[in-house]
Fold:
Amino acid sequence: STTTFAEDIASGSVIATLTATDIDTASLNSFSYSLVSGDGINDASNSKFIISGNTLVTSGTFDYETAASHAIYLQVNDGANTFNQAFTLSITDQNDAPTDILLSQTAINENTPIGSLVANLSVLDQDVLDSHVFTLYNSGDTQDDDNGSFTISGTSLLTNVDFDYETQMSHNIYVRVNDGLSNYFETFTIYITDLNEVPTNISLSSGSSVTFSNVTSINDNEALNAIIGTLQTTDEDQNETFTYTLVNGNGINDSDNTLFTLNGNQLILNTNLDYKLQTSVNINMQVSDGTNFF
Structure:
């Protein structure tokens, strides 16, 4: 004999009314019902139920994905005689809401091109055959502050902006997954990985007797070994150590490299200059931050 009830039914729910067939007239019988031991198989789920009068009541929760049916062994007693019978109770599968969203990773390098893959999305759901749709969702608070910096395509989380570690080191997104009937929401923090960025400019601050502009001026007959200026570098990365070098150029922009030397970040005059002989000098400078050159 079988009966059916839905998974996720509340503990203490009545799932069946028990009746007995007896050739004696009803006036002669008073039936009592109980769950009794069987052969270890036909009574395997006795502990999940109780008998209340003539009703069968759940005592716990049920999950279709764990067990789709349950065996119980019942006994009826009419006061003089007993009769035992095995029952199979079938569980009806119900939609289970997703319980978790997973990201394959939560970090991406700064300066990654727009449209790049950040992570793959997956879901935990007892209903393994469900189809799931992921979206960036409005949380109504700070959990979704950076939703606009990303897009979702299928199960792929993609960049929607060019990320810069020095501007913002982490971004909050709020993701919803829907299985067709139920939703699950989760907040994620995407961390930006700092990269060593190329220096973008070399500048020269004034020495004791020079005027600094885009073109640096040096006094005629400046003393030998005079400090012409102090070199500085523009670089988004903080706390970098820079090394300066006079390097070969195109034969014109480096034509006067030999007239100078470097001491750390100081440009030093290596000879006497005469305005009447030469009104300008050309040097070609390179800076290294240990990884990149400019």
The first strand starts at residue 2 and ends at 6. The CA atoms of residues 40 and 71 lie 10 Å apart.
